[in-house]
Amino acid sequence: MTAAASSDADLISAHAAGDPYAFSELVKRHRDRMWAVALRTLRDPEEAADALQEAFISAFRAASSFRAESQVTTWLHRIVVNACLDRMRRRQTRPTVPLPEAGPGEPVAPRDAMSDRETSLMVQQALMELPEEQRAPIVLVDIEGYSVAETAQLLGIAEGTVKSRCARGRAKLAKVLGHLRNRIADANVPADGVNVQEQRQWEGR
Amino acid sequence: MTGMERVPMGPPWSVDLIADLHAGVLPPEVAAQLRPRVEADAEASEVLRALDATLEDLHSLPPVPMPDHVAARIDAALAAEARPGIAPVVSLSDARRRRNRRLGMGGGVLVAAAAAFGIVLAVSPGAQQPPANDAAPAPTSKQSEAPPLALKRDELGSAVGEVLGAQNYGPLETPDRLTGCLKGGGITSSGTPLGISPIDLEGRSAVMAILPAGLGKYRLVVLDPATCGPDRQEGVLADTTVGQR
């Protein structure tokens, strides 16, 4: 099999048929994106590496039962996200290890200018301040570019919940990043004519 | 959806409500009526712009490539999973637990055998004997509590499953010392080895390091801690690559 010319689905089939190189090729194709998701979700590079290793091994074993109803990347992402969520649940009582200032694996050289680098560090820092239930959908939808429907499927929650968690997370980030003036951000009171319960019903929780 | 949802009165509107509008949380008919009113209000528009700017920040985060050492570790774990005869590595903690258990059990069996039969270790008849080195200093610290894995030269590959994931420098003590010893053998290696552990090579105290050698391959380097160094090639007792062709 010419790995470079094969589709992801071909690689999965080849793996199931016993091709010893097919799965490694699949991992090679997607590992950067999976690493970004794991790192940004878990924040701790060691935990991210452990979660990814666990996820890839688990995918390796389950690949023969993969059915082509979903895309390979979605399937792989789901396994990675689940591995991360498992770790997040397990460590809830433990303090998290903050990312070093530059962030592990972050490009050493800034893409354009120092200001780009500073902005990206600020955003990384701000993401850390979000509760995990908001950070995961923000990472998938706003950073990795998954649709709300795909994210709902990946996280196993309703689409409305994905939207409302993204909404809450973005509002917090807007404040932390200084896009929202404090006066506005602090005046965060329910509007006249609508009660909180009605608003919560819209959130689909 | 009843179609009877009330449109929130305002201004002012809460930031959360505007964020819901921005994220598409509100029912479409409510959003359709609310949006023009929000956009007509200076303060609410400012919140929308702030949310847009936040999204732009998130979209423009640079990609985060997987560090080489993580990629090598995952390649090694997958290769171990694919190779028959090598126990798959499920997680680092499992690997650590398994390794410790096996090193302890294997060593115990060997010590028991040695005591019972009055021998040290079996040495393959054709194997090259390392030169005697009576002056070699005993390892000074960080010796493994369990006796090291005993190996012959022609069975180094069988130790991959045991050593992979181990980070026991034994008598080499430090990563710098390992780098120096590898350099002596003309081997350039950056970063942490995929595994390193003291072994007993045909009766001689040694250290095995597993280095990445491409997808699904491992370079197994066995060093003599007593003689290896940056300028001493003879400190490399074995250097072989195993794994997928």
UniProtKB/TrEMBL annotation, chain A:
CDD domains: Sigma70_r4. It comes from the Bacteria. InterPro entries: RNA_pol_sigma-70-like, RNA_pol_sigma-70_dom, RNA_pol_sigma70_r2, RNA_pol_sigma70_r4_t2, RNA_pol_sigma_r2, RNA_pol_sigma_r3/r4-like, WH-like_DNA-bd_sf. Pfam families: Sigma70_r2, Sigma70_r4_2. Keywords: DNA-binding, Sigma factor, Transcription, Transcription regulation. Residues 93-113 are annotated as: Disordered. Residues 26-92 form the RNA polymerase sigma-70 region domain. GO terms for molecular function: DNA binding; sigma factor activity. The keyword DNA damage does not apply. One of its GO terms (biological process) is DNA-templated transcription initiation. Residues 121-173 form the RNA polymerase sigma factor 70 region 4 type domain. Belongs to the sigma-70 factor family. ECF subfamily. This is RNA polymerase, sigma subunit, ECF family. It comes from Lentzea albidocapillata subsp. violacea.
Automatic annotation (TrEMBL), chain B:
Residues 128-139 have a biased composition (Low complexity). Keywords: Membrane, Transmembrane, Transmembrane helix. It comes from the Bacteria. The chain crosses the membrane at residues 103-123. Residues 128-148 are annotated as: Disordered. This is Anti-sigma-M factor RsmA.
